[in-house]
Structures are given as C-alpha cells and as structure tokens.
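quick q for whoever's on today - can somebody do inverse folding on this one?? i tried earlier but teh output was garbage lol. tokens:
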C-alpha cells in the first residue's frame, strides 16, 4: 500500500480493523509504504480490503493497494510488526509527529 500511510496512525487503524473483522495476520511499515498480510473468511477479507482506503485515518491518503494471494501463514491474532527499511521512500506528511 502506498501514499501517505506512515506517520498518520495507519498501522493502528489496520490493526483495529483486522481485529474487528476477526482476521489474522500482520501490518508493518517498509521503505515504500505499508505491508499487510491478512487471512480469514473471504467475505471479511473483501470488506477489509475496501475499508483500507475508504475508512483510512483522516491524515492518510491511500494512493494504491496491491493485492496478491499468498499461502496462509496460520497466524493467530493480528499484530503490528517492526518496520523494515527495505523499498523506496515512503511519504510522511510534514508537521505530523510519528510513533516509535
């Protein structure tokens, strides 16, 4: 996912959304944006994918969402994982404090 998705509370938003839909997986920042892997009921995954851009935090702007089917990891619960420095240069809005 690319756009203004770092430094705007996007990972906690994704975490809360996934938990409300009873999905398993994780979210993390990387150098290009945000990576989300989610598994669960297909209808809930569709709702989740739509909500990522339609219900994003007010400071966020989702430019693109790329989806790819991957084998389930069998995770239990949904976690915010440590950021990775791989990839490009993600957009972070000016004058917005970032989380640790």
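ok took a stab at it. sequence:
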């Amino acid at each position: 996912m690319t756009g203004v998705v770092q430094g705007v509370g996007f990972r906690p938003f994704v975490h809360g959304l996934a938990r409300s839909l009873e999905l398993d997986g994780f979210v993390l920042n990387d150098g290009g944006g945000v990576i989300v892997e989610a598994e669960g009921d297909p209808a809930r995954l569709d709702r989740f994918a739509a909500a990522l851009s339609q219900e994003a935090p007010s400071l966020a702007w989702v430019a693109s969402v790329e989806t790819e089917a991957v084998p389930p990891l069998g995770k239990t619960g949904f976690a915010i994982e440590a950021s990775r420095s791989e990839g490009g240069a993600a957009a972070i809005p000016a004058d917005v404090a970032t989380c640790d």
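fwiw The beta strands are 2-4, 24-30, 33-39, 61-64, 78-80. also The first strand starts at residue 2 and ends at 4. so keep that in mind when u check it
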